[in-house]
């Protein structure tokens, strides 16, 4: 469903190990909003909810709620460091368009 690059796995491991609150993985969801209709939301999580798909890659668990699964199917998540700013980048084959902020999918 979701592919994490090595850079994303390393960034997530660092975030999980340095958080003050215990976390067992990353929750990713798609919510309404943004200039193209949807935005990605990410947060460290204690564990999966009952309707989550759980993807494990490189020792990192990703939790995706049932409403977001179809929107995220086939998505590759990378962590990019650049002069313009560092952060996670989503390459989503389901997105019909994206805006300059690179945070929307539709």
Summarize the structure.
By secondary structure, the chain is α/β, with parallel strands linked by helices. The chain is built from 2 helices and 7 strands.
List keywords for this structure.
106 residues, alpha/beta, 4-stranded mixed beta sheet, 3-stranded mixed beta sheet, 19% helix, disordered C terminus
The end-to-end span amounts to 17 Å
Shape: globular
DSSP strand count: 7
Largest sheet: 4 strands, mixed
Helix/strand-derived category reads: alpha/beta
**Helix content range of the residues, please?**
10-25%
Task: Output the strand order for the largest sheet.
Answer: 3-2-5-4
In terms of DSSP E residues, the strand content is 35-45%
Count of DSSP helices?
2
Mean pLDDT: 86
Poorly predicted runs: 102-106
How do the helices and strands follow one another from N- to C-terminus?
EHEEEEHEE
Rg over alpha carbons: 13 Å
Tell me what you see in this structure.
It is built from two helices and seven strands; from the N terminus they run βαββββαββ. It has helices at 6-18, 66-72; strands spanning 2-4, 25-32, 38-45, 53-57, 60-64, 75-80, 87-91. The two termini are 17 Å apart. Strands 3-2-5-4 form a four-stranded mixed sheet. The protein has a three-stranded mixed sheet with strand order 1-6-7. The model is unreliable at 102-106 (pLDDT under 50). The chain is α/β, with parallel strands linked by helices and 106 residues long. Strand 6 and strand 7 (87-91) form a beta hairpin. Helix content is 19%, strand content 38%.
């Amino acid at each position: 469903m979701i592919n994490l690059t090595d850079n994303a796995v390393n960034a997530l491991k660092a975030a999980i190990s340095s958080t003050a609150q215990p976390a067992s993985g990353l929750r990713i969801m798609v919510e309404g909003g943004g200039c193209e209709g949807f935005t990605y939301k990410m947060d460290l999580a204690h564990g999966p909810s009952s309707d989550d798909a759980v993807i494990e890659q490189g020792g990192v668990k990703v939790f995706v709620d049932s409403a977001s699964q179809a929107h995220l199917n086939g998505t590759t998540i990378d962590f990019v460091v650049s002069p313009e700013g560092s952060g996670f980048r989503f390459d989503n084959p389901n997105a019909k368009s994206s805006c300059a902020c690179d945070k929307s999918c539709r």
